[in-house]
Amino acid sequence: MHTTALQETSTFEAANSAPVLSLNGISKSFPGVRALNDVALSLYPGQVTALIGENGAGKSTLVKIMTGIYQPDAGEIVIGDDAVSLPTAHAAFGHGITAIHQETVLFDELSVAENIFLGHAPRNRFGLIDWKQMRANAREVLDTMGAGHIDAEARLRDLGIANKHLVAVARAMSIDARIVIMDEPTASLSAKEIEELFQLIEFLKSDGKAILFISHKFEEIYRIADRYTVFRDGEMVGEGRLAGTSQSEIVKLMVGRAVDHIFPKRTPDIGEPVLRIDGLSHPTEFDAISFELRRGEILGFYGLVGAGRSEVMQAIAGLTRTSAGTMRLEDAPLEPKSAADAIRSGIVYVPEERGRQGVVIGLPIFQNVSLPSLSRTSKSGILRLAEEFALARQYTERLDLRAASLSQDVGTLSGGNQQKVVIAKWLATRPRVIILDEPTKGIDIGSKAAVHGFMAELVAEGLSVIMVSSELPEIIGMSDRIAVMREGRMVEIFDNKDLHPETLVRAAAGIAA
Amino acid sequence: MTTTDVATNRRVPDRLDKPLTSALLSWEMLLVLVAVAIFVTNSLASPYFLNAWSLSDLTFNFVEKGLIALAMALLIISGEIDLSVAAIIALASTMMGMALQAGADTPVLVLIGLGVGLACGAFNGALVTRLGLPSIVVTIGTMSLFRGIAYIILGDQAYRGYPSSFAFFGQGYVWWVISLEIVLFAVMAVIFWFLLHRTSFGRTVFVIGNNPVAAAFSGVRVERVKFILFCLTGLMAGVASILLTSRLGSTRPSIAFGYELEVVTMVVLGGVAILGGSGSIIGVVLAALIMGLVTFGLGLLNVPGIVMSIFTGSLLIVVIALPILWRRFREARGG
């Protein structure tokens, strides 16, 4: 598969023009994580290349390298015939590389014309901005794109998201960009707006631009892209022409991986239902979610980013309100009005954003661990430090925390050890149900194994675990059953027996089997 | 950020023994040295300074502001601020004056002083926590509002004629040169120290100041804690109003004008981070003492009030800038 794709590429290249931009042997590491390992990518004029990969495959890192935000540790960037370096965003801009992000980086308080020409506005003979000329130029650019309906003098914030995208494209046109990167541009657009965006992409193609299109949605990729490049775990695993390549071949490339991580073996001892969720709904984030969680079970939640998994979990943990549906914990109705309520009933949520929602940086480890259990470690509201240290020691030791002392500021720990502190703090409340949201995101292999081993121990002790994860090996390696969500709805709950990763990816992306 | 994980399987100790130098280099120790230095300077500069009654008089310079600073420290650590405290003093004092005109006796006056302070604090707290408004904006607004009410009621008049039993609060002595005010300050300092550093409520104040989102995720009732802190600050302003009104023996609408900045200066000089998250009551008490020493010393030397105001303003800027510059300096050096 791998080789055929590459062969196809070479024949294709021979028949076509040379790439506008080539990335060769690019590597990039962050502390504890290898984000990109020797990847290559080529973009051709007048063609759309789709960059495909799971969350965490390294797509965003690559985009940041191409736009001058990150510097690669190794490898070269070739534009035309010259190897270039892109030390700043400004340098990337100067080489004709422009990016249109999910949330477009424009200036809401400025006018459309100012947004288009920011940094390269036409000047009059006194060196001042020639406003009249700028507005005229803006109108011209918008007209050529077929976006003449946008008023060049309007404030940007008065425009809808689709029109903001058009302005971003107009900006790309105005600097005569050769390379346009679109990072999930359709994420917040309606069907009609997506269609308009595609017409625009066709226009850019006909104008000879090279386009990198990042999307999780296969229908869009097949609709608009000419070529594909697949990333997996920071490596480039295949590329070629999209015509003649089936969806299942691409899905195989995305998920087929060497086993590099051993998950703990366990013999699940699954009991009666502990948590019953029935028809849980939220005005905007999710709708009619129903499932059961049983004693001693790990229930995995898989889906694309934005599928509404975290929002469901936060509702169960009392952090957001629901509009309909019922929850029962064991035989009592569960109606948490705050996180404190949920903790008291025995449900805890270990949030995804460790730095913002999990740890309290600035406070020592032991105070982080004891925080949700303060009522237990204090007596009539008075702190008992010995109890706090004992509690912190008990749970951090189980997680094999590496630290100089328990009085150390939690902010001085590595990401993996911070995550251990966060998990310890929730376990110390002695919950019946623990919800882990992306528990191993961005932590090193060693800490990952510790977290996984620990989850296995917890369910063996009769706890029930919900694990939200976008990492396929993790979700398949750890879960007893796997719920797949898409666009705020439950797609299906699979028994994790002989379950093929591709089944999950299809369900999450909405591809018919 | 440095990573200091230690790769051993040894037991992680509760604490590491702190080297003596780090204790000696603490902010509080620095404040002690500054206080001693100013004390010595004052003794050398004025022959009237080293005298039991002078030193007793000195305490009146900072006790009323210091009492508010104790509560304000908690509020600032939690990431909020109350700039209306001086206006609360004015409003509470005005209300006590009105009650006096209506024939109220000392116990009623005290209750009114405390009640108005608490009510004003609750009003600030409700605006901040219920409506989600930034406290700096809310309390600049209520600063004008509260003092404005005092001006409407009093105009250029003053309330006088407080009973002698009421005068005891601001003018009375418990024993020899030990005033009721300084005893009250000492007692309240111990209570606030205990509240901040020894109770789970105090712990949540630090947690909220460092990371309100994680606090909420951990089941801390962030809004309730903040509301209580605004009430406490208002209540302490009420206490200060009773003491100040009693000491002056009269109420004018301009009473305690500009106190809020001196209170904030005390808190920040005491080592409380202006952006919240850290600080100690001991530091605030030392800072109150230093402010008292400086203003009293300048007074003995007949330095005019406007110079003292310049001094307070400069001090506020310096103590806010110092920790920030110090951090930048350390980051620049890769520390």
Explain the overall architecture.
The complex is a heterodimer of chains A (513) and B (335). With 513 residues, chain A is α/β, with parallel strands linked by helices. Chain A has 4 domains: 2-96 and 178-255, Rossmann fold (3-Layer(aba) Sandwich); 108-176, no CATH class; 260-346 and 431-513, Rossmann fold, CATH 3.40.50.300; 359-426, no CATH class. Chain A is built from 19 helices and 22 strands. In chain A, the strands form 5 sheets. In chain A, strands 6-7-8-3-9-10 form a 6-stranded mixed sheet, with helices on both faces. In chain A, strand 1 (21-30) and strand 2 form a beta hairpin. In chain A, helix 6 (161-174) runs parallel beside helix 7. The longest helix of chain A has 16 residues, at 191-206. The model of chain A is unreliable at 1-15 (pLDDT under 50). Chain B has 335 residues and is mostly helical. Chain B has a single domain (51-330), classed as ABC transporter involved in vitamin B12 uptake, BtuC. In chain B, 72% of the residues lie in helices and 3% in strands. In chain B, the strands form 2 sheets. In chain B, strands 1-4 form a two-stranded antiparallel ribbon. A two-stranded antiparallel ribbon of chain B has the order 2-3. In chain B, strand 2 (173-175) and strand 3 (178-179) form a beta hairpin. Chain B is globular, with a radius of gyration of 21 Å. Chains A and B meet through helix 11, helix 12, strand 18 and helix 15 of A and helix 10 and helix 11 of B.
Keywords:
heterodimer, A: 513 residues, alpha/beta, Rossmann fold, 6-stranded mixed beta sheet, 22 strands, 36% helix, globular, disordered N terminus, B: 335 residues, mainly alpha, ABC transporter involved in vitamin B12 uptake, BtuC, two-stranded antiparallel sheet, 15 helices, 4 strands, 72% helix, 3% strand
Layout of SSEs?
The complex is a heterodimer of chains A (513) and B (335).
Chain A: H1 2-15, E1 21-30, E2 33-43, E3 48-52, H2 59-66, E4 74-79, E5 82-84, H3 89-94, E6 97-100, H4 112-117, H5 131-144, H6 161-174, E7 179-183, H7 191-206, E8 210-214, H8 218-224, E9 227-232, E10 235-241, H9 247-255, E11 273-281, E12 289-294, E13 298-302, H10 309-316, E14 324-329, E15 332-333, H11 339-345, E16 347-350, H12 354-358, H13 365-370, H14 374-377, E17 378-379, E18 382-383, H15 385-398, H16 415-427, E19 433-437, H17 445-460, E20 464-468, H18 472-478, E21 481-486, E22 489-495, H19 501-509
Parallel strand pairs in A: 3-8, 3-9, 6-7, 7-8, 13-20, 13-21, 16-19, 19-20
Antiparallel strand pairs in A: 1-2, 1-4, 4-5, 9-10, 11-12, 11-14, 14-15, 17-18, 21-22
Chain B: H1 20-24, H2 27-45, H3 52-59, H4 63-77, H5 85-101, H6 106-131, H7 135-154, E1 159-160, H8 164-171, E2 173-175, E3 178-179, H9 180-198, H10 200-210, H11 212-217, H12 222-248, E4 250-251, H13 259-269, H14 281-300, H15 305-332
Antiparallel strand pairs in B: 1-4, 2-3
